[in-house]
Amino acid sequence: MIRHALVLLSLLSGAAWAQEAPPTRELELLSEHPVEGMAAGNLSGLAWCGDALWAVSDREDDRLYRLDASDSVWQGEAEHFDVPPAPNTGLPWGVRVRSAITGLVRGGEMDFEGLSCDSLGNRYLASEAHAAVLRVSPAGMAEWLPLPEALVRQARASGMLLDFNAMFEGIAVDPEANRLWLAAERERRGLLVMHRNQSSWQCTGGCVLLAEGGRELPPPALGDQPLPRRFSGLAYFNDKLFTLEPSAHQVCRRSLASGQVERCWSYAATALADERRYDTPFGNAEALSLDEQGAWIGVDNNAQTRRDGEKRPIVWRFAAPKGGWGARQ
């Protein structure tokens, strides 16, 4: 009886939540663009900077790519920079050593995940291997940001950044570069925020904005085996955070104050179309950039080939939802 009552209570509370939450709508795909010129592939970040969309690969430590979108197949034009020695941000020795060995074997010692830009054209890259942030100026000068010492400590105390290859996967900065957000990938995933005080960054009231664990069901096309909740990309737009969530194949708008989800939009119909499928149970979308007209989502094929034979990184262009990204319904 008790078990039946608990099941009924769970169903009722789930139904009540479903009535309160806006339905998840499907984003409309406008175009698809294979990317040439990224030597190592593995597109892991996108951001609109100045007059173009830029990309980064997690297998290359010394370059960004300006994407020439003059044709349906885009061309990545490399901009090189020199990376200073990475700072010690407080990650355990074992995690740092394993990251270093992996970087030597596969390429990409920094493991850059995520890309964001401020209004001055500075580019910000999150290093998953070092839990650090590199800023690259429009002139190509690179320097590590002096992040607060408490950042990694607070994240780990909240259950994040505990496992190898489950560190920072997304980054976002506001146009004035006064606030910077990082997304921890999985088990537990979360959002962290820092505020700039002149030349330094601080955890004002704490760095951890959100930390959550658990699993969730993927879209029906992937079966009924729950997958770990994941963040793979992060974007700031119109005073909101937007997360790319590959297990659920969706983009979600989140509160700046709490990180709590406000609304989600699905891209599953596009990603899981038979010809676009990869032989993996996990989602491959890793990069996110938004504007008034829509969203850019980048796909890291991780050296895999799609069912239609496509081997290059992919960028999808989706139309903004009806009513815009701030829509409640």
From TrEMBL:
TM helices/strands, residue ranges: none
Range of residues in the leader sequence: 1-18
Keywords annotated in UniProt: Signal
Pfam families: Phytase-like
InterPro entries named in the record: Phytase-like_dom
The keyword Isomerase belongs to this UniProt entry's keyword annotation: no
Keyword match Membrane: no
Domain Phytase-like: start-end pairs: 41-188
Designated name of the protein: DNA topoisomerase IV
Organism this protein belongs to: Stutzerimonas nitrititolerans
